[in-house]
Amino acid sequence: MEEKIGVLLLNLGGPETLKDVQPFLYNLFADPDIIRLPGLFKLLQWPLAKLTSVLRAPKSEKGYAAIGGGSPLRKITDEQANALRMALEAKNVNVSVYVGMRYWYPFTEEVIEQVDTLLDGIKWDDKGLAMAIAQNVDTGAILMQGFVNKGALATIITSRKATFFSRSRATLWTKGETSNNFINIYDKRRNKLCVQFSWRGFLLGHVRLLLVKLLEIQEQIGSSNIKMSNLVLI
Ligand SMILES: C=CC1=C(C)c2cc3[nH]c(cc4nc(cc5[nH]c(cc1n2)c(C)c5CCC(=O)O)C(CCC(=O)O)=C4C)c(C)c3C=C
Ligand SMILES: [Fe+2]
C-alpha cells in the first residue's frame, strides 16, 4: 500500500471579521498558557477572560478595521499550506497538508476529525481529481463547476470558501479571490451558510443524489433556516 503522509500546520489564529474579535480574545485570555492565575484565582479565569475581552474588543476592532477588517493570519497560513503541498507533490510525495488553529477557526480538533473522514470517502480519479459542483440550495441552479484535488478540498474545509484546482495552471484557486465574490460554505457551529459535500465523478449521475442531499439538509437544519445565499457544494 502506498504510504500516505499528513502534515498539520499549527498556528494560533486571529479574528477574521470584526464580529470575531471579542470571542477570539475570550478564547485567548481563557487559556492558562497565555494568562496564568495563581492558586484559587484560577477560578476567575473565565469571568476575567469574558470581562477583559469585552473591555478590550473595541480598541482591537479599530486596529483590525485599519488592516482590512480582520487578521491576515489564516490567509497567510493557508498560503503556506498550499505552497508546502505543491512543493511536496512536485517531489512526488503523497501528502495532505492541513491547517489547525488554537484560538480561532479552523480549530485543530475539528480539522483532524473532518479531514480524515472526508478525504478517505472520496473516489479520486487517476490524476487525484474529483469533479465539484457548487449549487444554490434553494434554486438548484448550478453556479460553478470545477475540479478539486485533496489540497483544494482541505482548503475548502479550513477556509470555508469554495476552492478549485485549476488544471490549466496546476494551482489551487479560490472563487472570489480577486472579485471578493466568494462561495461560502456552511459552518454548523456558526450557523451561517449552508454546505453539504458529496463528491461523484459524473454530473448526470448527480441530480438525483443532489435532491436526496437537499432533503437531508432541509431536515437537518430546518427549511426556514435556508436562505437564498445558501449554497451546496456537491
Ligand atoms: C493581556 C494581554 C495579552 C497577552 C498577555 C497576550 C499574550 C499572547 N498573545 C499571543 C498571540 C496572539 N495574540 C493576538 C492578538 C491579541 N492579543 C492581545 C492581548 C494579549 N496577548 C490582544 C488585545 C490582541 C488583539 C489584537 C490587538 O488588539 O492588539 C493574536 C492574533 C494576531 C492576529 O493575527 O490577529 C495572536 C496570535 C500569544 C502567543 C501570547 C503569549 C504567549
Ligand atoms: Fe496576544
TrEMBL record:
Membrane topology: Peripheral membrane protein
Residues of the Phosphoribosyl-AMP cyclohydrolase domain: 144-187
Coiled coil start-end: none
Known pathway: Porphyrin-containing compound metabolism; protoheme biosynthesis; protoheme from protoporphyrin-IX: step 1/1; Amino-acid biosynthesis; L-histidine biosynthesis; L-histidine from 5-phospho-alpha-D-ribose 1-diphosphate: step 3/9
One Pfam assignment: PRA-CH
Iron among keywords: yes
GO MF entry, a single one: ferrochelatase activity
Keyword field: Amino-acid biosynthesis, Heme biosynthesis, Histidine biosynthesis, Hydrolase, Iron, Lyase, Porphyrin biosynthesis
Identification of the protein by name: Phosphoribosyl-AMP cyclohydrolase domain-containing protein
